[in-house]
Design a protein that fits this description.
heterodimer, A: 162 residues, alpha/beta, Rossmann fold, two-stranded antiparallel sheet, disordered C terminus, B: 211 residues, Beta Polymerase, domain 2, 2 domains, four-stranded mixed beta sheet, 6 helices, disordered N terminus
Chain lengths: 162, 211
């Protein structure tokens, strides 16, 4: 962006892309979806003490059609895996995914028959968060990383991997 | 005093009613599958209006019936004849042993509707069928699941990954499998594990003295 201060009327020069990225990265709306105890930390991140609204992510959308970000917050049971895949498919492009915590990223302590050993076997993941559970600060940082990806031109979802 | 909850040693069968004392307010009845239905009907007639839960247990190796199906009944007796008896709950636990190859007991969903999902859960996780159940489908595992996960012989990590090595780098099973990628010998890793756990400290010391 460039601000023209020489001319009598101030004006702003920019490109559509950078404005779109700025807007997009400032309103990353997560999907209202909690799987396990990590979801408690996710809720805490929305509460006043951490206040994810400061990053523009306060609007958790109950419909995948309106969400930009899927936070896989907890262990994913094999019975739930098709549901997650469907929700991800229903989200409009561009879309991003945070794999929150050890269980979502690798199965964590649940090395057993019932739990998917890493959600990246079901949907593509943009940011992996360590922790069991991660702190709300960690989630803020992960959203921050997503925003950096968006600002650097990442489009998320399938297009980002093409 | 040893705990009565100690699991049985490998292969041996343990009858829980033999080691656990009766709970103060619960009678424990053991019945055969053929008498189960009549017993439960009689108990319901005696005022046990609540079926709190239906459970199951697997005692692998117990002959001829490895499974126990357990019914937990409660009576809040409105017909009590003493003041102390009013509102005093009375419990009965009915155990019924069923065996392979086709473990089946009659359903009690017509007596207590609360048995519906409990019986489905047992069918799902133990493979015990409930004859006459109106909708005997899996309830927790996916519909196309194979096997019954709460049976003791079901592999914890599932049949597909049963034989793949666990990701942990210093597990005894990995050590026994041979020299790990780190290049450390099995003996060195075993010593490291023992030290980390604080167990067998004496054995480790003697090993060091006499290599």
């Amino acid at each position: 962006m460039a601000i023209g201060s020489d001319s009598p009327g101030d004006f702003l020069l920019t490109t559509v892309d950078s404005v779109a990225r700025w807007a997009q990265s400032s309103s990353v709306w997560p999907l209202t979806m909690g799987l396990a105890c990590c979801a408690i930390e996710m809720m805490t991140a929305t509460a006043p003490e951490y206040d994810i609204a400061r990053l523009g992510s306060e609007v958790f959308r109950a419909s995948p059609r309106q969400a930009d970000l899927m936070i896989v917050s907890g262990r994913l049971a094999k019975k739930m895996a098709p549901v997650i895949k469907r929700l991800y498919d229903q989200m409009a492009e561009p879309k991003w995914v945070i794999s929150m915590g050890a269980c979502a990223s690798s199965g964590g302590i649940f090395d057993n028959y019932a739990i998917v050993q890493g959600v990246d076997t079901v949907i593509p993941v943009d940011v992996y968060m360590p922790g069991c559970p991660p702190t709300p600060d960690g989630l803020l940082y992960a959203v921050n990383l997503i925003q950096q990806q968006i600002k650097q031109g990442g489009r998320g979802g399938i297009l980002a991997r093409a | 005093m040893p705990s009565s909850q100690t699991p049985p040693a490998g292969g041996t069968a343990l009858d829980p009613t033999a080691v656990r004392p009766d709970i103060d307010d619960a009678r424990i009845l053991r019945v055969a599958p053929a008498e189960l239905r009549a017993t439960l009907e009689r108990l319901k007639g005696e005022g046990f209006a609540m079926l709190l839960d239906v459970g199951a247990a697997d005692y692998p190796g117990r002959e001829p019936a490895r499974f126990d199906v357990v019914y937990h009944l409660l009576r809040l007796d409105a017909r009590a004849t003493t003041i102390a008896g009013v509102g005093t709950p009375e419990r009965v636990r009915v155990l019924c042993a069923v065996g392979e190859p086709d473990p089946v007991v009659p359903t009690v969903t017509d007596l207590w509707p609360s048995a519906d999902w409990a019986e489905r859960e047992i069918y799902d996780l133990y493979g015990v069928r409930f004859d006459g159940h109106p909708d005997l489908r899996r309830i927790q595992m996916p519909d196309d699941w194979e096997g019954y996960p709460l049976r003791k012989d079901y592999p914890l990590r599932g049949p597909a990954r049963e034989r793949t090595p666990r990701p942990s780098f210093a597990l005894k099973s990995n050590v026994a499998a041979g020299t790990p990628a780190s290049g450390k010998t099995a003996a060195a890793l075993q010593r490291q594990i023992a030290q980390a756990r604080g167990q067998n400290a004496v054995n480790v010391k003697t090993e060091d003295k006499n290599p």
